[in-house]
């Protein structure tokens, strides 16, 4: 018969205690002050469960939940467990949470039912009032108490019965401006995201959106669950107005966008003001520069008109070339930019060319080669195009000076070269030497290739070395500094003409040497050696064949004719002549003389006399050394073989001393040459260091032994006349005053270093 449509008032599930129990609990725990419970009607008090104990159900609905904290673990008194005691020993206080800072909870986290069947978070936050975030970590008991009282006050009913004031969130204009700037920077990625296709499957029906922003603006669809009937004391629920909310949000967004657009427009206008300010400054500078340029151009125009006026025939004060050069110098110094921009070619053609023609009208280059060099050098610095010069060009249309030299100066040179005789080369060479640093390179090349060389080539063809009294080198060699390799085509016909002239030549005629000697350094070494071997060496060989060696009456003319060519022909060619045509006869005469009981003093003088006829360079050649050493060996054998016959007193000693002296000279000269060569190599950094240069003859022998892989070492305990004996390969030697002696069959024989190396091998 009860009315079930009346509203249900839920109450706490806790039990009411007596006053005595409440007093005892307050006395036992003075630190905590539980909240007093209101009186509950008896009919709403739950009945005790028949559990056989004093079990108390959880007081979930009790205000603050204090009783449930206080009764935590009270069932343990009826068991044998010691968990409560252990917790109290570790600092646990009944009525507070677990943990160091009492941040723990006792009751489990409640679950919250979702309104519809959507995904997680589709209907707002699902966090309960008893989530972990509602129990922050505190640092002390006082803070824990304050936090507890704060949470407790949220459950109390406002005594005034008023509703809580709604909280509003505001956005300032500065925040909107900042947001607009950020969105402007991120406009590109947002544009890409705005074109993403999104399929929403969180509702009952599948919906397709074409940007993420459409999801955020979709309306909240109210639940389809039936509404409960309103009771007598119930309050009506609020109605959802998604269209109104959407329109309000749209007005807010439009207003925000207008504010952002206004801010951007304002910033654009400010930037435009700054940009225009800079443009005004720049244009002011350009205007000032243009005014200065106009002023300078007006002055330049006045100066040019003044020059044209003074060039008129009727002018009383005509313009000279020096005055015109000064005017151009003024233009170049004071108005350099305008001078560079102007057309110098046309200006020079109109003003300078007539003055230049008048200046050179009576000029003879061969008589006065330096005439006009100073004034032309000045005009070169004024008119020459530096850029064209750096590229090596010869464009007459862009360089006024090159055109000036080609059209004004060059005709005078052509006329004078046409009348010039090549054998009178001095005046023409001096003329070109005076102008070589002024004339452009390509004009000088044209003069040498097109004007001078054809004249020289024609004159060489007409030259005859047998009849012409003027040697050809006197009018060809002065052109070497200017023409250099350009004269190479002339050398071959010159050699052919000289070879033809030497066909009937005899070495007694010294004029051939005078004609050929200037060409030695002009011809290449190969062509010169080939010319000598073909035309001179055979003639010298014939002359040596005609030489008669007579110790009693010697005629030396033929020998002098041959030796006189030593500097002209190579050393190897001269040595070949001597080996073939001189030394066989010379050694034969020596053997014949020694076989007829000779006077050894005369033989010694004869030997030394012939040796003194050769230069040190020829004597240093190994073949010449061998020939003279062979003569010494012949004399030593002659002295040693005449044991029973008559022997001139002191002859043996004289010959031995001569041998020793001559070979010592050879060794000293060889050591000096090698030391000098080693020093030169050490200075150039090519050979050994200066410290490794041999300092004495023993070091020289050791160096030669190392070069030829020959063992050179002292013989222990063996000496000869107090001199240390050494093994040099397979032979035994000793060294005395820079001379090496080799052990022979009966005596020690001095020998050369090269012979020693040959014997050791």
From TrEMBL:
Region of interest: Disordered: 15-43, 113-143, 215-238
Basic and acidic residues composition-biased segments: 33-43
Taxonomy, superkingdom: Eukaryota
InterPro entries referenced in this protein's UniProt entry, alphabetically: G_patch_dom, GCFC_dom, TFP11/STIP/Ntr1
GO annotation, biological process: spliceosomal complex disassembly
GO cellular component terms, A-Z: U2-type post-mRNA release spliceosomal complex
Ranges annotated as biased composition (Acidic residues): 22-32
GO function terms (MF aspect): nucleic acid binding
Residues passing through the membrane, by range: none
G-patch domain span: 79-125
Pfam families, A to Z: G-patch, GCFC
PANTHER family (alphabetical): TUFTELIN-INTERACTING PROTEIN 11, TUFTELIN-INTERACTING PROTEIN 11-RELATED
Family listed: Belongs to the TFP11/STIP family.
Protein name: TFP11 protein
Lineage: Eukaryota, Metazoa, Chordata, Craniata, Vertebrata
Gene giving rise to this polypeptide: Tfip11
């Amino acid at each position: 018969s009860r009315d079930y449509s009346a509203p249900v008032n839920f109450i706490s599930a806790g039990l009411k205690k007596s006053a005595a129990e409440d007093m005892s609990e307050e006395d036992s725990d003075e630190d905590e002050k539980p909240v007093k419970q209101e009186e509950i009607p008896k009919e709403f008090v739950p009945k005790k469960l028949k559990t056989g104990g004093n079990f108390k159900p959880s007081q979930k609905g009790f205000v603050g939940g204090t009783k449930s904290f206080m009764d935590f673990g009270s069932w343990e008194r009826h068991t044998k467990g010691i968990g409560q005691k252990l917790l109290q020993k570790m600092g646990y206080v009944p009525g507070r949470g677990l943990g160091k800072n009492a941040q723990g909870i006792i009751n489990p986290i409640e679950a919250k039912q979702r309104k519809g069947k959507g995904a997680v978070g589709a209907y707002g936050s699902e966090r309960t009032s008893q989530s972990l975030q509602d129990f922050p970590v505190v640092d002390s008991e006082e803070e824990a108490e304050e936090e507890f009282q704060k949470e407790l006050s949220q459950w109390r009913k406002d005594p005034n019965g008023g509703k809580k004031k709604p909280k509003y969130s505001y956005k300032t204009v500065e925040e909107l401006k900042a947001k607009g700037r950020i969105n402007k920077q991120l406009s590109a990625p947002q544009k890409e995201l705005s074109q993403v296709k999104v399929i929403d499957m969180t509702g009952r029906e599948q919906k397709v959106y074409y940007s993420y922003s459409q999801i955020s603006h979709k309306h909240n669809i109210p639940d389809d669950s039936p509404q409960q009937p309103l009771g007598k004391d119930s309050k009506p629920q609020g109605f959802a107005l998604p269209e109104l909310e959407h329109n309000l949000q749209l007005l807010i967004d439009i207003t925000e966008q207008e504010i952002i657009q206004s801010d951007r427009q304002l910033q654009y206008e400010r930037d435009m003001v700054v940009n225009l300010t800079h443009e005004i400054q720049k244009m002011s500078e350009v205007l000032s520069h243009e005014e200065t340029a106009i002023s300078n151009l007006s002055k330049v125009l006045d100066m040019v008109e003044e020059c044209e006026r003074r060039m008129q025939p009727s002018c009383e004060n005509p313009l000279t070339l020096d005055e015109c050069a000064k005017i151009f110098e003024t233009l170049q110094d004071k108005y350099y930019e305008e001078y560079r921009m102007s057309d110098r070619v046309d200006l020079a053609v109109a003003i300078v060319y007539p003055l230049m023609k008048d200046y050179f009208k009576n000029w003879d280059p061969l008589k006065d080669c330096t005439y006009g060099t100073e004034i032309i050098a000045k005009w070169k610095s004024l008119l020459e195009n530096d850029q064209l010069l750096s590229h090596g060009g010869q464009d007459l249309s862009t360089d006024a000076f090159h055109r000036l030299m080609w059209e004004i100066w060059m005709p005078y040179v052509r006329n004078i070269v046409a009348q010039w005789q090549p054998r009178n080369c001095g005046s023409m060479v001096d003329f070109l030497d005076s102008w070589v640093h002024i004339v452009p390179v390509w004009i000088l090349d044209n003069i040498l290739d097109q004007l001078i060389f054809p004249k020289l080539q024609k004159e060489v063809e007409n030259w005859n070395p047998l009849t012409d009294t003027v040697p050809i080198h006197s009018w060809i060699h002065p052109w070497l500094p200017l023409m250099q390799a350009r004269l190479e085509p002339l050398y071959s016909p010159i050699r052919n003409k000289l070879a033809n002239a030497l066909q009937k030549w005899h070495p007694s005629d010294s004029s051939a040497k005078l004609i050929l000697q200037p060409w030695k350094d002009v011809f290449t070494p190969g062509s010169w050696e080939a010319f000598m071997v073909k035309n001179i060496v055979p003639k010298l060989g014939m002359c040596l064949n005609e030489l008669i060696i007579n110790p009693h009456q010697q005629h030396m003319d033929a020998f002098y004719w041959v030796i006189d060519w030593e500097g002209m022909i190579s050393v190897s060619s001269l040595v070949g002549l001597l080996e073939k045509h001189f030394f066989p006869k010379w050694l034969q005469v020596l053997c014949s003389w020694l076989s007829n009981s000779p006077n050894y003093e005369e033989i010694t003088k004869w030997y030394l006399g012939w040796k003194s006829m050769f230069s040190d360079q020829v004597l240093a050649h190994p073949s010449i050394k061998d020939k003279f050493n062979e003569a010494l060996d012949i004399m030593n054998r002659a002295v040693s073989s005449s044991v029973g016959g008559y022997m001139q007193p002191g002859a043996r000693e004289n010959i031995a001393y001569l041998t020793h002296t001559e070979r010592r000279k050879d060794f000293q000269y060889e050591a000096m040459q090698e030391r000098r060569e080693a020093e030169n190599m050490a200075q150039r950094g090519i050979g050994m260091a200066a410290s490794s240069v041999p300092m004495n003859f023993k070091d020289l022998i050791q160096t030669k032994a190392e070069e030829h892989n020959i063992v050179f070492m002292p013989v222990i305990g063996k000496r000869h006349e107090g001199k240390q004996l050494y093994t040099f390969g397979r032979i035994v030697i000793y060294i005395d005053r820079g001379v090496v002696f080799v052990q022979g069959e009966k005596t020690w024989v001095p020998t050369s270093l090269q012979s020693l190396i040959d014997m050791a091998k």
